[in-house]
């Protein structure tokens, strides 16, 4: 019985230790695992590794982040992504970096990342940014945490929570964004509700949002 108790205690300790030591992506078991493109294979975490003897410095390099992303769209923002597809050396290291550019009044619409916490460092412009809590257990309203960010400000968006950014300044804006995941995922709220294929039945959304069916059909037509 004492031995069984010890094993149970040890198991609990190991599980607890793992939960403290892991980031949201699994820790690598080697110095690096430079990705090899392989469209024929699907892996649970990361991509297949290049032979370390064939790895070069360029496997850890990306260029072009000094030039703006295209903002020629209806939302007025654009991103450049530095992830494992651009920098193979990021494979298994649990990191993705973006450059985000804003036109005046440009907006990154409400969205969430199911697998990563996000941090933004504002370098140019005046950015209104915020996130919304999950549904409270006491049936009160979801709480908004939002701030006007100036150059040099850093703001955190916790994993899985709906968040947004908008350039409220009169000049263009720019920031650098980092995720603690190789594949943070992206769920844009409007697309997920009104832009699915096939469409969610309007009756479901009419009842859910307590609006006329024509409103739902209009919103679906916009996505």
TrEMBL record:
InterPro entries in the record = Cupin_1 (IPR006045), Germin (IPR001929), Germin_Mn-BS (IPR019780), RmlC-like_jellyroll (IPR014710), RmlC_Cupin_sf (IPR011051)
Major location (coarse): secreted
Keywords on record: Apoplast, Disulfide bond, Manganese, Metal-binding, Secreted, Signal
Ranges for domain Cupin type-1 come to: 63-217
Which is an annotated Pfam family here? Cupin_1
Query: Under the cellular component aspect of Gene Ontology, which terms does the record hold?
Result: apoplast
For binding Mn(2+), which residues are annotated in this chain's numbering?
A: 111, 113, 118, 163
The record's SUPFAM superfamilies line, in alphabetical order, gives: RmlC-like cupins
| Amino-acid positions noted as binding oxalate in the UniProt annotation, renumbered to this chain | 113, 118
Which first-to-last residue range defines the signal peptide? 1-23
- Cystine crosslinks: 33-49
A molecular function (GO) held by this record is: manganese ion binding
Where is the protein situated, by its record's location annotation? Answer: Secreted, Extracellular space, Apoplast
Name the family the entry cites. Belongs to the germin family.
Looking up PANTHER family in the UniProt record yields:
GERMIN-LIKE PROTEIN SUBFAMILY 3 MEMBER 3 (PTHR31238)
What this protein is called in its record is Germin-like protein
Taxonomic lineage per UniProt?
Eukaryota, Viridiplantae, Streptophyta, Embryophyta, Tracheophyta
């Amino acid at each position: 019985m004492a031995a069984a108790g010890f094993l149970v205690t040890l198991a609990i300790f190991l599980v607890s230790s793992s939960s403290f030591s892991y980031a949201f992506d699994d820790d690598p078991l080697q110095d690096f695992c430079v990705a090899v493109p392989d469209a024929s294979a699907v892996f649970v975490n990361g991509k297949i590794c290049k032979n370390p003897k064939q790895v070069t410095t360029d496997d850890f390099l990306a260029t072009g982040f000094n030039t703006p992303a295209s903002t020629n769209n209806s939302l007025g923002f654009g991103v450049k992504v530095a992830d494992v597809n651009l920098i193979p050396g990021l494979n298994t290291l649990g990191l993705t970096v973006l450059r985000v550019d804003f036109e005046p009044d440009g907006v990154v619409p409400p969205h969430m990342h199911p697998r990563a916490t996000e941090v933004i460092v504002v370098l140019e412009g005046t950015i209104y940014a915020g996130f919304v809590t999950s549904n409270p257990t006491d049936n009160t309203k979801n709480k908004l945490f939002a701030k006007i960010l100036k150059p040099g400000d850093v703001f955190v968006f916790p994993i899985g929570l709906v968040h947004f950014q908008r350039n409220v300044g009169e000049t263009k804006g720019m920031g650098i964004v980092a995720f603690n995941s190789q594949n943070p995922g992206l769920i844009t709220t409007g697309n997920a509700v009104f832009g699915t294929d096939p469409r969610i039945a309007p009756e479901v959304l009419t009842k859910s949002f307590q609006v006329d069916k024509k409103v739902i059909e209009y919103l679906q037509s916009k996505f």
